[in-house]
Specification:
Strand order of the largest sheet: 3-2-1-4-5-6
Number of strands: 13
Oligomer: single chain
Helix content: 40-55%
Structural class: alpha/beta
Order of helices and strands: EHEHEHEHHEHEHEEEHHEHHHHEEEHHH
Number of helices: 16
Distance between the termini: 47 Å
Largest sheet: 6 strands, parallel
Strand content: 15-25%
Protein backbone atom coordinates (compact mmCIF):
# COMPACT_ATOMS: atom_id res chain seq x y z
CA UNK A 1 0.00 0.00 0.00
CA UNK A 2 1.42 3.38 -1.03
CA UNK A 3 0.66 6.80 0.42
CA UNK A 4 -2.54 7.41 2.42
CA UNK A 5 -5.51 8.07 0.14
CA UNK A 6 -7.96 10.86 -0.41
CA UNK A 7 -11.49 9.53 -0.95
CA UNK A 8 -14.28 11.86 -2.11
CA UNK A 9 -17.94 10.92 -1.72
CA UNK A 10 -20.17 12.88 -4.10
CA UNK A 11 -23.75 12.90 -2.82
CA UNK A 12 -22.53 12.44 0.76
CA UNK A 13 -25.76 13.84 2.22
CA UNK A 14 -27.34 10.50 1.29
CA UNK A 15 -28.51 8.49 4.28
CA UNK A 16 -26.48 5.59 2.79
CA UNK A 17 -23.17 7.34 3.56
CA UNK A 18 -22.81 5.77 7.06
CA UNK A 19 -22.79 2.40 5.22
CA UNK A 20 -19.69 3.56 3.33
CA UNK A 21 -18.17 4.93 6.53
CA UNK A 22 -18.64 1.53 8.15
CA UNK A 23 -16.79 -0.09 5.23
CA UNK A 24 -13.94 2.44 5.45
CA UNK A 25 -13.60 1.80 9.20
CA UNK A 26 -13.64 -1.97 8.71
CA UNK A 27 -10.72 -1.77 6.25
CA UNK A 28 -8.78 1.04 7.92
CA UNK A 29 -5.54 -0.97 8.12
CA UNK A 30 -5.69 -2.00 4.42
CA UNK A 31 -6.89 1.44 3.27
CA UNK A 32 -5.19 4.23 5.25
CA UNK A 33 -6.86 7.55 4.42
CA UNK A 34 -5.39 11.04 4.72
CA UNK A 35 -8.65 12.80 3.80
CA UNK A 36 -12.32 12.01 3.39
CA UNK A 37 -14.13 14.69 1.39
CA UNK A 38 -17.91 14.64 1.82
CA UNK A 39 -19.62 16.70 -0.87
CA UNK A 40 -23.31 17.45 -1.30
CA UNK A 41 -25.39 20.36 -2.57
CA UNK A 42 -27.85 19.98 0.37
CA UNK A 43 -26.17 21.79 3.26
CA UNK A 44 -28.43 20.49 6.03
CA UNK A 45 -28.22 16.82 5.04
CA UNK A 46 -24.46 17.14 4.58
CA UNK A 47 -24.11 18.60 8.08
CA UNK A 48 -26.23 15.87 9.72
CA UNK A 49 -24.82 12.88 7.81
CA UNK A 50 -21.28 14.26 7.83
CA UNK A 51 -21.49 14.83 11.57
CA UNK A 52 -22.41 11.19 12.16
CA UNK A 53 -19.54 10.06 9.88
CA UNK A 54 -17.08 12.18 11.88
CA UNK A 55 -18.31 10.64 15.15
CA UNK A 56 -18.13 7.11 13.66
CA UNK A 57 -14.52 7.74 12.60
CA UNK A 58 -13.55 9.14 16.00
CA UNK A 59 -15.21 6.26 17.89
CA UNK A 60 -13.34 3.73 15.73
CA UNK A 61 -9.99 5.45 16.23
CA UNK A 62 -9.78 6.35 12.55
CA UNK A 63 -7.52 9.39 12.27
CA UNK A 64 -8.62 11.01 9.04
CA UNK A 65 -9.29 14.59 8.05
CA UNK A 66 -13.03 14.85 7.26
CA UNK A 67 -13.91 17.77 4.98
CA UNK A 68 -17.56 18.68 4.34
CA UNK A 69 -18.11 20.86 1.29
CA UNK A 70 -20.75 21.96 -1.19
CA UNK A 71 -18.03 22.65 -3.78
CA UNK A 72 -17.44 19.81 -6.24
CA UNK A 73 -13.94 21.07 -7.16
CA UNK A 74 -12.80 21.13 -3.52
CA UNK A 75 -13.95 17.55 -3.04
CA UNK A 76 -12.31 16.27 -6.24
CA UNK A 77 -8.96 18.10 -6.10
CA UNK A 78 -6.22 15.48 -5.60
CA UNK A 79 -8.64 12.61 -4.91
CA UNK A 80 -7.50 9.01 -5.42
CA UNK A 81 -11.02 7.55 -5.39
CA UNK A 82 -14.34 9.25 -6.10
CA UNK A 83 -17.50 7.45 -4.96
CA UNK A 84 -20.60 8.66 -6.83
CA UNK A 85 -24.03 8.28 -5.24
CA UNK A 86 -26.03 11.22 -6.56
CA UNK A 87 -29.79 11.56 -6.94
CA UNK A 88 -30.57 14.50 -9.22
CA UNK A 89 -33.86 16.05 -8.10
CA UNK A 90 -33.66 14.03 -4.86
CA UNK A 91 -36.49 11.75 -3.74
CA UNK A 92 -39.35 14.04 -4.93
CA UNK A 93 -38.11 13.48 -8.53
CA UNK A 94 -38.16 9.73 -7.90
CA UNK A 95 -41.78 9.98 -6.72
CA UNK A 96 -42.72 11.63 -10.05
CA UNK A 97 -40.89 8.84 -11.95
CA UNK A 98 -42.99 6.32 -10.03
CA UNK A 99 -46.39 8.03 -10.10
CA UNK A 100 -46.72 9.65 -13.54
CA UNK A 101 -46.24 6.45 -15.64
CA UNK A 102 -49.08 4.74 -13.74
CA UNK A 103 -51.53 7.21 -15.35
CA UNK A 104 -50.51 5.81 -18.75
CA UNK A 105 -50.81 2.17 -17.77
CA UNK A 106 -47.04 1.74 -17.37
CA UNK A 107 -44.90 0.58 -14.46
CA UNK A 108 -43.38 3.49 -12.55
CA UNK A 109 -40.05 2.40 -11.10
CA UNK A 110 -36.79 4.06 -10.17
CA UNK A 111 -34.47 2.29 -12.63
CA UNK A 112 -36.68 0.24 -14.99
CA UNK A 113 -39.11 1.45 -17.65
CA UNK A 114 -39.81 5.10 -18.40
CA UNK A 115 -39.16 6.16 -14.79
CA UNK A 116 -35.64 4.75 -14.98
CA UNK A 117 -35.25 6.39 -18.40
CA UNK A 118 -35.91 9.82 -16.89
CA UNK A 119 -33.58 9.12 -13.99
CA UNK A 120 -30.89 8.51 -16.64
CA UNK A 121 -31.85 11.76 -18.43
CA UNK A 122 -31.36 13.76 -15.21
CA UNK A 123 -28.25 11.95 -13.98
CA UNK A 124 -26.05 11.53 -17.07
CA UNK A 125 -25.45 15.28 -17.69
CA UNK A 126 -24.37 15.75 -14.05
CA UNK A 127 -22.13 12.66 -14.14
CA UNK A 128 -20.50 13.92 -17.36
CA UNK A 129 -19.82 17.22 -15.60
CA UNK A 130 -18.23 15.37 -12.65
CA UNK A 131 -16.08 13.43 -15.15
CA UNK A 132 -14.95 16.64 -16.87
CA UNK A 133 -13.91 18.12 -13.50
CA UNK A 134 -12.11 14.88 -12.60
CA UNK A 135 -10.14 14.97 -15.86
CA UNK A 136 -8.72 18.32 -14.68
CA UNK A 137 -8.53 17.97 -10.87
CA UNK A 138 -7.74 14.28 -10.30
CA UNK A 139 -6.97 12.70 -13.68
CA UNK A 140 -5.60 9.48 -12.15
CA UNK A 141 -8.51 8.93 -9.75
CA UNK A 142 -10.91 6.02 -10.02
CA UNK A 143 -14.62 6.82 -10.10
CA UNK A 144 -16.76 4.13 -8.54
CA UNK A 145 -20.37 4.92 -9.31
CA UNK A 146 -23.48 3.49 -7.72
CA UNK A 147 -25.84 6.30 -8.74
CA UNK A 148 -28.71 4.65 -10.62
CA UNK A 149 -29.32 3.56 -13.32
CA UNK A 150 -25.78 2.27 -12.81
CA UNK A 151 -25.44 0.31 -16.07
CA UNK A 152 -26.67 3.12 -18.32
CA UNK A 153 -24.40 5.62 -16.53
CA UNK A 154 -21.44 3.27 -17.06
CA UNK A 155 -22.38 3.04 -20.76
CA UNK A 156 -22.32 6.86 -21.01
CA UNK A 157 -19.19 7.48 -18.95
CA UNK A 158 -16.91 4.83 -20.46
CA UNK A 159 -17.88 5.70 -24.04
CA UNK A 160 -17.96 9.50 -23.72
CA UNK A 161 -15.33 10.49 -21.11
CA UNK A 162 -11.70 9.68 -20.30
CA UNK A 163 -12.20 8.87 -16.60
CA UNK A 164 -11.28 5.51 -15.15
CA UNK A 165 -14.54 4.21 -13.74
CA UNK A 166 -16.48 1.15 -12.66
CA UNK A 167 -20.21 0.88 -12.08
CA UNK A 168 -21.43 -0.93 -9.02
CA UNK A 169 -24.60 -2.52 -7.66
CA UNK A 170 -25.34 -4.53 -4.52
CA UNK A 171 -27.74 -6.95 -6.29
CA UNK A 172 -25.09 -9.57 -7.25
CA UNK A 173 -23.55 -9.57 -3.76
CA UNK A 174 -26.96 -10.08 -2.15
CA UNK A 175 -27.91 -12.81 -4.66
CA UNK A 176 -24.71 -14.75 -4.00
CA UNK A 177 -25.05 -14.40 -0.24
CA UNK A 178 -28.64 -15.63 -0.16
CA UNK A 179 -27.99 -18.61 -2.51
CA UNK A 180 -24.91 -19.71 -0.55
CA UNK A 181 -27.06 -19.69 2.59
CA UNK A 182 -30.05 -21.43 0.97
CA UNK A 183 -27.90 -24.28 -0.44
CA UNK A 184 -25.49 -24.39 2.54
CA UNK A 185 -22.56 -23.93 0.14
CA UNK A 186 -20.39 -21.27 1.81
CA UNK A 187 -17.70 -21.33 -0.90
CA UNK A 188 -19.99 -21.45 -3.93
CA UNK A 189 -18.82 -19.50 -7.00
CA UNK A 190 -21.27 -18.21 -9.60
CA UNK A 191 -21.49 -17.47 -13.29
CA UNK A 192 -23.36 -14.18 -13.33
CA UNK A 193 -24.36 -12.58 -16.61
CA UNK A 194 -26.47 -9.60 -17.60
CA UNK A 195 -26.91 -5.87 -17.52
CA UNK A 196 -27.47 -3.82 -14.38
CA UNK A 197 -30.91 -4.75 -12.96
CA UNK A 198 -31.35 -7.35 -15.72
CA UNK A 199 -29.23 -10.31 -14.68
CA UNK A 200 -29.17 -14.06 -14.14
CA UNK A 201 -27.08 -16.72 -12.41
CA UNK A 202 -26.32 -19.49 -14.90
CA UNK A 203 -23.93 -21.70 -12.89
CA UNK A 204 -23.32 -22.46 -9.20
CA UNK A 205 -20.01 -24.22 -8.58
CA UNK A 206 -18.79 -25.63 -5.28
CA UNK A 207 -15.53 -27.60 -5.11
CA UNK A 208 -15.73 -28.54 -8.79
CA UNK A 209 -19.41 -29.54 -8.81
CA UNK A 210 -22.24 -27.58 -10.47
CA UNK A 211 -25.33 -27.15 -8.29
CA UNK A 212 -27.45 -25.19 -10.76
CA UNK A 213 -29.66 -28.22 -11.61
CA UNK A 214 -30.31 -28.80 -7.91
CA UNK A 215 -31.23 -25.13 -7.46
CA UNK A 216 -33.56 -25.22 -10.50
CA UNK A 217 -35.26 -28.38 -9.21
CA UNK A 218 -35.91 -26.62 -5.91
CA UNK A 219 -37.17 -23.53 -7.75
CA UNK A 220 -34.61 -21.56 -5.76
CA UNK A 221 -35.06 -17.77 -5.72
CA UNK A 222 -32.38 -15.42 -4.56
CA UNK A 223 -33.40 -13.04 -1.80
CA UNK A 224 -35.39 -10.10 -3.13
CA UNK A 225 -34.24 -6.53 -2.65
CA UNK A 226 -35.88 -4.52 0.15
CA UNK A 227 -37.07 -1.91 -2.35
CA UNK A 228 -38.98 -4.36 -4.57
CA UNK A 229 -42.43 -5.63 -3.55
CA UNK A 230 -41.59 -9.26 -4.29
CA UNK A 231 -43.72 -12.28 -5.04
CA UNK A 232 -40.87 -14.48 -6.26
CA UNK A 233 -40.44 -16.70 -9.34
CA UNK A 234 -42.21 -20.03 -9.74
CA UNK A 235 -40.24 -23.26 -10.08
CA UNK A 236 -41.65 -23.69 -13.61
CA UNK A 237 -40.46 -20.24 -14.70
CA UNK A 238 -36.93 -20.76 -13.35
CA UNK A 239 -36.71 -24.16 -15.04
CA UNK A 240 -37.88 -22.66 -18.34
CA UNK A 241 -35.18 -19.96 -18.10
CA UNK A 242 -32.47 -22.48 -17.08
CA UNK A 243 -31.18 -19.71 -14.79
CA UNK A 244 -31.93 -17.88 -11.55
CA UNK A 245 -33.04 -14.31 -12.31
CA UNK A 246 -32.38 -11.28 -10.12
CA UNK A 247 -35.46 -9.89 -8.41
CA UNK A 248 -35.62 -6.88 -10.78
CA UNK A 249 -36.74 -9.30 -13.51
CA UNK A 250 -40.07 -9.57 -11.71
CA UNK A 251 -40.91 -6.25 -13.40
CA UNK A 252 -40.37 -7.85 -16.82
CA UNK A 253 -41.71 -11.36 -16.26
CA UNK A 254 -44.77 -10.29 -14.23
CA UNK A 255 -45.45 -6.93 -15.85
CA UNK A 256 -49.24 -6.95 -15.38
CA UNK A 257 -49.15 -8.16 -11.79
CA UNK A 258 -46.49 -5.58 -10.88
CA UNK A 259 -48.39 -2.76 -12.57
CA UNK A 260 -51.57 -3.68 -10.69
CA UNK A 261 -49.68 -3.82 -7.41
CA UNK A 262 -48.21 -0.36 -7.98
CA UNK A 263 -51.57 1.10 -9.06
CA UNK A 264 -53.20 -0.25 -5.90
CA UNK A 265 -50.45 0.87 -3.51
CA UNK A 266 -51.34 3.66 -1.11
CA UNK A 267 -47.98 5.29 -1.68
CA UNK A 268 -45.02 4.85 -3.97
CA UNK A 269 -41.69 3.44 -2.84
CA UNK A 270 -40.20 6.94 -3.17
CA UNK A 271 -42.75 8.31 -0.70
CA UNK A 272 -41.89 5.49 1.72
CA UNK A 273 -38.19 6.36 1.28
CA UNK A 274 -38.93 10.04 2.02
CA UNK A 275 -40.45 8.93 5.33
CA UNK A 276 -37.51 6.60 6.12
CA UNK A 277 -35.04 9.34 5.18
CA UNK A 278 -36.75 11.82 7.50
CA UNK A 279 -36.61 9.32 10.38
CA UNK A 280 -32.98 8.45 9.64
CA UNK A 281 -31.89 12.10 9.55
CA UNK A 282 -33.63 12.58 12.91
CA UNK A 283 -31.68 9.62 14.33
CA UNK A 284 -28.39 10.71 12.70
CA UNK A 285 -28.71 14.19 14.23
CA UNK A 286 -28.35 12.73 17.75
CA UNK A 287 -24.90 13.91 18.88
CA UNK A 288 -24.50 10.73 20.98
CA UNK A 289 -24.91 8.39 17.99
CA UNK A 290 -21.65 7.02 16.60
CA UNK A 291 -22.74 3.77 14.87
CA UNK A 292 -24.88 3.02 11.81
CA UNK A 293 -28.52 2.63 12.96
CA UNK A 294 -30.58 -0.52 12.20
CA UNK A 295 -33.32 1.43 10.36
CA UNK A 296 -30.92 1.96 7.44
CA UNK A 297 -31.41 -1.71 6.49
CA UNK A 298 -35.01 -0.94 5.43
CA UNK A 299 -33.67 1.08 2.47
CA UNK A 300 -32.52 -0.99 -0.51
CA UNK A 301 -28.81 -0.50 0.10
CA UNK A 302 -27.85 -3.49 2.23
CA UNK A 303 -24.17 -4.45 1.90
CA UNK A 304 -23.26 -1.40 -0.22
CA UNK A 305 -20.32 -0.66 2.07
CA UNK A 306 -18.93 -4.18 1.65
CA UNK A 307 -19.31 -4.01 -2.13
CA UNK A 308 -17.97 -0.48 -2.63
CA UNK A 309 -15.08 -0.37 -0.19
CA UNK A 310 -13.87 -3.88 -1.05
CA UNK A 311 -13.65 -2.68 -4.66
CA UNK A 312 -11.57 0.35 -3.59
CA UNK A 313 -9.36 -2.06 -1.61
CA UNK A 314 -8.96 -4.36 -4.64
CA UNK A 315 -7.76 -1.47 -6.84
CA UNK A 316 -5.63 0.34 -4.25
CA UNK A 317 -3.87 -2.85 -3.13
CA UNK A 318 -3.79 -4.55 -6.57
CA UNK A 319 -5.58 -7.59 -5.13
CA UNK A 320 -6.46 -9.26 -8.47
CA UNK A 321 -9.70 -10.57 -6.95
CA UNK A 322 -13.08 -11.37 -8.46
CA UNK A 323 -15.88 -8.79 -8.27
CA UNK A 324 -19.08 -8.28 -10.26
CA UNK A 325 -18.93 -4.82 -11.84
CA UNK A 326 -20.42 -2.77 -14.65
CA UNK A 327 -17.66 -2.45 -17.23
CA UNK A 328 -17.23 -2.35 -21.02
CA UNK A 329 -17.69 -5.82 -22.48
CA UNK A 330 -14.45 -5.81 -24.54
CA UNK A 331 -15.22 -9.25 -25.97
CA UNK A 332 -16.01 -10.99 -22.65
CA UNK A 333 -19.52 -11.86 -23.90
CA UNK A 334 -19.12 -12.70 -27.60
CA UNK A 335 -22.78 -11.92 -28.32
CA UNK A 336 -22.53 -8.28 -27.13
CA UNK A 337 -20.67 -5.32 -28.70
CA UNK A 338 -17.18 -4.44 -27.39
CA UNK A 339 -18.42 -1.01 -26.24
CA UNK A 340 -21.52 -2.29 -24.41
CA UNK A 341 -21.50 -1.84 -20.64
CA UNK A 342 -22.34 -5.22 -19.09
CA UNK A 343 -22.60 -6.46 -15.50
CA UNK A 344 -20.26 -9.44 -15.18
CA UNK A 345 -17.54 -10.97 -13.03
CA UNK A 346 -14.14 -9.37 -13.51
CA UNK A 347 -10.68 -9.60 -11.99
CA UNK A 348 -9.97 -6.30 -10.25
CA UNK A 349 -6.54 -4.82 -9.51
CA UNK A 350 -4.60 -1.58 -9.87
CA UNK A 351 -5.45 -1.33 -13.60
CA UNK A 352 -9.17 -1.70 -12.98
CA UNK A 353 -11.45 -4.56 -13.99
CA UNK A 354 -10.76 -7.20 -16.64
CA UNK A 355 -14.06 -8.94 -17.42
CA UNK A 356 -13.92 -12.74 -17.36
CA UNK A 357 -14.57 -14.33 -20.75
CA UNK A 358 -17.71 -16.42 -21.19
CA UNK A 359 -17.01 -18.25 -24.46
CA UNK A 360 -19.69 -20.61 -25.74
CA UNK A 361 -22.48 -19.06 -23.65
CA UNK A 362 -25.64 -20.42 -25.27
CA UNK A 363 -28.70 -19.41 -23.21
CA UNK A 364 -30.70 -17.87 -26.08
CA UNK A 365 -33.31 -16.29 -23.81
CA UNK A 366 -30.65 -14.35 -21.89
CA UNK A 367 -28.71 -13.43 -25.05
CA UNK A 368 -31.80 -12.06 -26.80
CA UNK A 369 -33.14 -10.26 -23.72
CA UNK A 370 -29.78 -8.59 -23.07
CA UNK A 371 -29.48 -7.47 -26.71
CA UNK A 372 -32.98 -5.98 -26.69
CA UNK A 373 -32.50 -4.06 -23.43
CA UNK A 374 -29.00 -2.96 -24.48
CA UNK A 375 -30.49 -1.47 -27.65
CA UNK A 376 -32.79 0.56 -25.37
CA UNK A 377 -29.80 1.61 -23.22
CA UNK A 378 -27.71 2.78 -26.19
CA UNK A 379 -30.51 5.01 -27.49
CA UNK A 380 -31.07 6.27 -23.93
CA UNK A 381 -27.45 7.46 -23.72
CA UNK A 382 -27.80 9.21 -27.10
CA UNK A 383 -30.96 10.97 -25.91
CA UNK A 384 -29.35 11.96 -22.58
CA UNK A 385 -26.22 13.42 -24.15
CA UNK A 386 -27.70 15.09 -27.23
CA UNK A 387 -31.22 15.91 -26.07
CA UNK A 388 -32.36 13.87 -29.07
CA UNK A 389 -36.11 13.34 -28.65
CA UNK A 390 -36.33 10.93 -31.58
CA UNK A 391 -33.70 8.75 -29.88
CA UNK A 392 -35.71 9.00 -26.65
CA UNK A 393 -38.84 7.68 -28.36
CA UNK A 394 -36.88 4.93 -30.14
CA UNK A 395 -35.42 3.94 -26.77
CA UNK A 396 -38.82 3.77 -25.09
CA UNK A 397 -40.33 1.73 -27.93
CA UNK A 398 -37.63 -0.90 -27.31
CA UNK A 399 -38.08 -0.95 -23.55
CA UNK A 400 -40.10 -4.05 -22.57
CA UNK A 401 -41.94 -2.03 -19.88
CA UNK A 402 -43.06 0.67 -22.33
CA UNK A 403 -43.43 -0.39 -25.96
CA UNK A 404 -46.63 1.52 -26.85
CA UNK A 405 -46.03 4.64 -28.93
CA UNK A 406 -49.06 6.70 -27.82
CA UNK A 407 -48.49 5.98 -24.13
CA UNK A 408 -44.73 6.49 -24.45
CA UNK A 409 -45.09 9.86 -26.20
CA UNK A 410 -47.72 11.23 -23.80
CA UNK A 411 -45.85 10.07 -20.70
CA UNK A 412 -42.53 11.32 -22.11
CA UNK A 413 -44.00 14.80 -22.59
CA UNK A 414 -45.47 14.90 -19.09
CA UNK A 415 -42.31 13.68 -17.36
CA UNK A 416 -40.22 16.07 -19.45
CA UNK A 417 -42.36 18.98 -18.19
CA UNK A 418 -42.28 17.68 -14.60
CA UNK A 419 -38.47 17.42 -14.58
CA UNK A 420 -37.60 20.35 -16.85
CA UNK A 421 -35.40 22.01 -14.17
CA UNK A 422 -33.06 18.98 -14.37
CA UNK A 423 -33.12 18.39 -18.15
CA UNK A 424 -30.80 20.98 -19.70
CA UNK A 425 -30.29 18.83 -22.81
CA UNK A 426 -33.97 19.23 -23.78
CA UNK A 427 -33.87 23.02 -23.29
Amino acid sequence: MGNPLKVAIIGAGSTYTPELMEGIIKRKSALPLRELALMDIDEEKLRIVGGLCERMAAAAGLHVRVVMTQQLDEALRGADFVLGQIRVGKLPARVLDEQIPLKYGMIGQETCGIGGFFKAMRTIPVMLDIAARMETLCPDAWLINFSNPAGIITEAMLNHTKVKMLGLCNVPFNMFKSIREALSLPDAEFTYVGLNHLSWITAIEHHGQDYLEKALEQGLNSESMKNIPSSGFSKELIQALKAIPSSYLEYYYFKNKKLQLLQNSERSRGETCLQIEKELLGIYADAELHIKPELLASRGGANYSEVAISLVDAIANDKQEKHVVNVLNQGALPFMEHTDAVEVSAIVGKDGAKPLQLPGFDNRHIIDYMRMVKAYERETVTAAINGDEAAAIRALLMNPLVGDYDAALACFEELKRAHQAYLPQFG
